[in-house]
Amino acid sequence: MTRPIIVFDLDGTLVDTAPDLLSSLNHCLGVAGLQKAEPAELRRFVGMGGRIMIERAFAAQNRPLDQAKLDELLLTFLDHYGGAIPGESKPYPGVIEALDRFEAAGYTAAVCTNKYENLSTALIQGLGLAPRFAAICGQDTFAFRKPDPRHLTETILKAGGNRDHAIMVGDSQTDIHTAKAAGIPVVAVDFGYTDRHVREFEPSHIISHFDELTVELADTLIRASAR
User: Fold this and answer.
1) Distance of CA 101 to the CA centre of its chain
2) Which of 70, 105, 155, 215 could form a disulfide with 137 if both were Cys (CB 3.0 to 4.6 A apart)?
3) Cα–Cα distance between 50 and 54 in angstroms, integer?
């Protein structure tokens, strides 16, 4: 029998990476002569990887950004961010206990994120969580990334799972749209990195703490999606 699988987004879902993302973004903005971004602004910038985060930060200050400069700043961002992993990033409250529950219930766990794979792996290893996941798939793992549903379905396959026995957990419109397009139920956390409340995107369920992410909830959503 195929083991059920639970797939997590990373930034803003499993791990609070905001302090380190903001630090590296502001390093780039400083190099470019722009004003630093405020913590509250980060929610508007993240979700699609470092390149788009930089583009959004420039757009917020109405500053032009050509492709060559963006490429240069992305390298600056990645160098700064990668050199500090795991930095101040840490799992959200209840994450470890939730992973324990699902492991005990026979679930496989995986990560599907728009962070680069090497940075995702370094972060998860740095936090001591790597043995928890059968696959860690980033924006460059495949030739496509979220919101393309294949990013999620291929992550499931790589982890040895079956999409018919899968559930996703994320924090953003991107995650919710990805799961819906794949026909997979999605639980949205309401404490992540999005400037619009996740209820607007109509996920299968919303939680405010990982204590609410129970095996019973996941089983129920998976069964309902199979009807």
Assistant:
1) 21
2) 155
3) 6
Interacting residues of 109 by C-beta distance below 8 A, sequence separation 6+: 5, 6, 7, 8, 99, 102, 103, 132, 133, 134, 159
- What is the mean predicted confidence (pLDDT) over 108-131? 96
Q: Is 41 helix (H, G, I), strand (E, B) or coil?
A: helix
Mean pLDDT of all residues in 110-132: 96
The domains located in the chain, with CATH, are: 5-16+89-225 (3.40.50.1000), 18-82 (1.10.150.240)
Using a 10 angstrom Cβ sphere, with 0-12 exposed, 13-18 middle and 19 or more buried, the burial of residue 194 is buried
How does pLDDT run across 18-51, given as a tens digit for each residue?
Answer: 889 999 999 999 999 999 998 888 877 876 678 8
Q: What is the mean pLDDT of residues 54-64?
A: 92
Positions annotated as catalytic residues are 9
Contacts of 42 (CB under 8 A, 6+ apart): 18, 21, 22, 25, 193
